[in-house]
């Protein structure tokens, strides 16, 4: 699908505040993330990790502050930002009545990308789902569904990955696969923000942001 374009790729959080109901999850949260860097968002359950990732992905609005990509607030260049960012939520975003191949074909079409069945089949084989491309997603195990969602990373050239619990339900081989994908992405100048209850063992630069 081609390589990311890391030139001047930088993600900035500027004074972010998040309120859910009557609870303040975090405030005055700022950071810069440059090309080739990975950021692990840590914190206890309910600390606001998923809320932060959804704000960074442009799916939720912060109470205060802004998210900036390549020097521009994402709220002002939403289409351009979405074209250069891929968000994987912990629910996977899969339709259970569709097969993995059909799910990925639909996702690529909605993302405005070429839905090439050969490329999709190759991506599914790479994540360990060879032979399952036409099976209904509802009959797959939780780990296989997670692998289906992760195969999107192989089909997109987006320089920014925002991943909510990408290691969920994976076996040892699956954990190794995700770590390899992250290493390869960082080596190519990509950026990633992720949460995980698993140790994140990568060879590239890994920064940590702890939500109290």
Lay out the secondary structure.
Elements: E1 10-20, E2 23-34, E3 38-43, H1 49-56, E4 64-69, E5 72-73, H2 78-83, E6 85-88, H3 100-110, H4 117-126, H5 142-150, H6 152-155, E7 160-164, H7 172-187, E8 191-195, E9 206-211
Helix pairs in contact: 3-4
Provide a compact summary of the structure:
It is built from seven helices and nine strands; from the N terminus they run E-E-E-H-E-E-H-E-H-H-H-H-E-H-E-E. With 212 residues, it is α/β, with parallel strands linked by helices.
Descriptive account of the structure:
The chain is an alpha/beta fold. It has helices spanning 49-56, 78-83, 100-110, 117-126, 142-150, 152-155, 172-187; strands at 10-20, 23-34, 38-43, 64-69, 72-73, 85-88, 160-164, 191-195, 206-211. It is 30% helix and 27% strand. α3 packs across α4.
Global mean pLDDT: 94
How far apart the termini lie comes to 39 Å
Shape: globular
Poorly predicted runs of 5 or more residues = 1-7
Succession of helices and strands: EEEHEEHEHHHHEHEE
Biggest β-sheet: strands ordered side by side in the sheet = 6-7-8-3-9
Percent helix = 25-40%
Number of helices: 7
Structural class: alpha/beta
* Total beta-strand segments: 9
- Largest β sheet strand count, sense and barrel closure: 5 strands, parallel
Rg from alpha-carbon coordinates:
17 Å
How much strand content do the residues show?
25-35%
């Amino acid at each position: 699908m081609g390589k990311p374009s890391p030139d001047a790729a930088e993600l900035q959080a500027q004074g972010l505040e998040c309120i859910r109901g009557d609870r303040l999850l975090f405030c005055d949260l700022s950071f810069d993330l440059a090309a080739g860097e990975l950021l692990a968002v840590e914190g206890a359950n309910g600390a606001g990790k998923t809320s932060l990732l959804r704000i960074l992905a442009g799916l939720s609005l912060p109470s205060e502050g802004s998210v900036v990509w390549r020097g521009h607030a994402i709220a002002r260049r939403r289409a351009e930002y979405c074209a250069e960012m891929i968000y994987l939520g912990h629910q996977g975003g899969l339709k259970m009545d569709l097969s993995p191949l059909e799910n990925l074909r639909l996702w690529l079409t909605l993302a405005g990308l070429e839905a090439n069945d050969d490329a999709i089949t190759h991506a599914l084989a790479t994540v360990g789902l060879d032979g399952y491309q036409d099976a209904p997603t509802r009959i797959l195990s939780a780990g296989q569904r997670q692998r289906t969602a992760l195969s999107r990373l192989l089909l997109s050239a987006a320089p920014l990955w925002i991943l909510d619990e990408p290691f969920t339900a994976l076996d040892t081989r699956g954990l190794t696969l995700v770590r390899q994908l992250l290493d390869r992405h960082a080596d190519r100048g990509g950026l990633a923000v992720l949460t995980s209850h698993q140790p994140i063992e990568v060879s590239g630069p890994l920064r940590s942001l702890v939500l109290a």
